[in-house]
Amino acid sequence: MKKEIQLTIDGNTIQVPEGTTILKAAESIGIKIPTICYHDYCTANALCRICVVEIEGSRTLIPSCVAKVSSDMQVKTKSERVIKSRKTILEMLVSSIDLSESPEILNMIDEYEANPSRFPDAERREHAVIDDNPMFIRDYEKCILCWRCVQVCAEDAQYTFAINFSGRGYETQINTFYEKPLPETSCVFCGQCIGVCPTGALKPKREWLLQDGYQPEEIMLLTRTQRKKKTKSSARPSSGGSHE
I need a labelling partner for 128 at 20 to 30 A (CA). Which of 31, 33, 71, 215 fits? Predict the structure, then answer.
């Protein structure tokens, strides 16, 4: 039996088991703290910082998805400082990322009255869509680097380790190891990365083709042809020589 911890969230005194995150403690009394990178079935990494809260006595705002409750903690989830931080994060995201297929984030932008034009000189992320397999596409212009896909491909679910980060600083993006095409990696095309992606950066190939105006019959032909090419390529015997 875990020890019960008493704390106060937005004026509500509650008790929760020791080890509970502030996010889950707030959720237990109906207080919803916004999240972007967090997913119930993925390891929390506190990357997006949209879930920050103000804790009495703390110099900085604290990410509630990873911070654990402590005895007599005083938490504010909607203070002026918290609201300003979330609003700024959303404004930075929308200034450089294509969020057109991110309804939850777009709703947050409306809720926090974030100004999409606040950073007019921000450099937009520009990447060509990567279409290297018959199952799904990668559109990194929509990627917010939430790490969900990396986690679910690794220890959180699949243990395939087909994808990770590449690049540094502004050039950081999700990629395959050694930037290889997906069919040449350990990817098994399980689709779990697509399931946890919040922005449409990873999308089923057929859905993408439908949105691009292709008819179902054309899509069947295109994906079937690509599968055949992949099968022939993987079945081709090695020559034992060097590759160009």
Answer: 215
Angle, alpha carbons 193-52-149 (nearest 5°)? 5
- Residue 51 is part of a domain; what is its CATH number? 3.10.20.740
**For residue 209, what is the domain's CATH number?**
3.30.70.20
CB neighbours of 101 closer than 8 A, spacing ≥ 6? 142, 199, 200
List pLDDT tens digits, range 20-76: 999 999 999 999 999 999 999 999 999 999 999 999 999 999 999 999 999 999 999
Q: How far apart are CA 154 and CA 138, in angstroms?
A: 18
Of 123, 84, 87, 78, nearest to 105 by C-alpha is 87
Q: Is the pTM of this model over 0.85?
A: no
Let me know the angle formed at the C-alpha of 110 by 53 and 102, rounded to the nearest 5 degrees. 90
91 sits in the region (left: phi over 0; alpha: psi -120 to 50; else beta) called alpha
* 198, part of any domain: yes
Q: Are residues 227 and 142 in the same domain?
A: yes
* Least confident span in 56-60, 136-140, 208-212, 226-230: 226-230
Domain annotation covers residue 122: no
What distance separates the 2 farthest-apart alpha carbons in the chain? Answer: 71
Per-residue pLDDT, averaged over 184-200, amounts to 94
- Measured between alpha carbons, how far is 205 from 226 in angstroms, rounded to an integer? 11
Q: How far is CA 231 from the centre of its chain?
A: 31
Last residue of a domain, one of 57, 79, 101: 79
